Input
Amino acid sequence: MGFLSKTEVAPAAVAKGSAASTPFDQTPLSNTPATQSIASGINGHAAPVPLTADNEPMLTFLAVLLGAIASMGGFIFGYESGQISGFLAMSDFLARFGENGQFSAARQGTIVGLLCIGTLVGCLASGWICDRLGRKWTISSAAFFYIIGVVIEVSSEKQWVQFAMGRFTAGMGIGALSTSVPMYQSESVPKNIRGATVASYQLMITLGIWTAYMINWHTEAAFGNSAQWRIPNALSMLWALILGGSILFMPESPRFAYRMGRVEEARNTLAKLNGVDPYSKLIDDEVKEIDDKLKADNAQGVAPWYEIFTGPSMLYRTLLGMVLQAGQQLTGANFFFYYGTTVFKSTGIENSYITSIILGSVNVGATVGGLWIVKNCGRRKALMAGAAWMFMCFMVYAFVGSFVLDANNPMATPTAGKVLIVFTCLFIVAFATTWGPLVWAVVGEMYPSRYRAPAMAVATASNWLFNFLISFFTTFITNAIHYFYGLVFGGCCLALFFIVYFFMMETKDRSLEEIDTMYTSGVNPRKSAGWKPSVLPADVKVAENKETVPARLMAHDERVFPENPDSKPAMSQNPTQAV
Output
């Protein structure tokens, strides 16, 4: 490849149509100014160029803006989820869609749960769409599709089935966003802020929930007709218009652009997002990592969908991603968000909307703190601590609610009611700082580019599946076992602690390509925090050339250990020529 060439060297010949051919073969690193400068110093026996600020990623406005705009997809989901708990308690909504002024468990579960069924369908389809349209165009299309569902909801008059189907349609748009947004963020932003950026998707979910609570509280008190629920419902279209329009002004994912052969676009986008020159060492190294992985992918041909289970270490990763996403639901957080206003009526609190606002405010504030944890603490430690904390909260919640609280006359046991509120808030703090934001970040960076879209779609689908199961069956279960329901979620939190401990890698501050190497190399998850990428020793000699290969090169170097030796030109015996 002429990576350390003093004089320009043609790239290794690749047969036309070869599966191993990538855009990188037409844009050798030896042609970049930064690489030529480094190469000249080495071949001239000068000391290697020291690492400069131009070689370190910077916090750029574009990277922050890209992450914030894409995270509007989370706001839409949070807003749609948060508003339904308030709708179920509104007088006009009950009169139109209830039965004799109330909802049966089956009807309530269907109205709430059909959103999750729609999201399940949407996220499964989004993997295929992302690989055809691109990441940002999928996000825009999903946002505009979501508006169709909102129109169906708002236009409902007396038929609860129409409202429920509107939520199903809106859910398909939200499901596509739940896959494409974390994928777009993971592939685009610099690795030093990738975790916090992807976790901001969860922050926007919490902000959407809180916004829905606030608007519901105001409209329920201000109106006595359908404006109670139609105004907050119609506002959903505004959030979708903002996302669908503004994302079009953002660059496409550089990794997707590179796989499509748009090499210069990918290089320039990476440079702008990192705040460095397009031909800096940082970008050269990242482009080479992307290219190495793409070559390995192309050598295997087109990936059928089932390879997310049969590919190298993919069964392990696919199942782990599904368990983590399902686990986010099985922590029990959405039990409070979907049914918060209903649950806390049983504690004797008169205005349950105020309780929901309090819980939503705690959720938002804690998630902001969670972004700091994502950026500065390891994924494994944070998830294990969060799971243990939530387990403790649910034990208190279940036993106090079952043995201390007077269910028939909650006002007779005010202390028990306050304890339930306090430990619910403590639970939300634990969830919002750990399992809420971190699962999106971990799953978004777990898969190689070859399988990322379908694997993320399947993992996210498990989230929506359990979201539906919890939202649909919670009313039936709480009617049967009441506060002992907390023991189910507590047991799940305990199981998740050990799943993270034994099976999940520590991926903080690693490139997507390094993470892939960790899984394919069989790194022990319990020791993964201390794992370092293998590098060539600084004194490796190449053939008869006595020049030193810098230690910064990756472990697999095509110039030293070519995958197809017969297709590479023989190394020069002339010591004045390039390696």
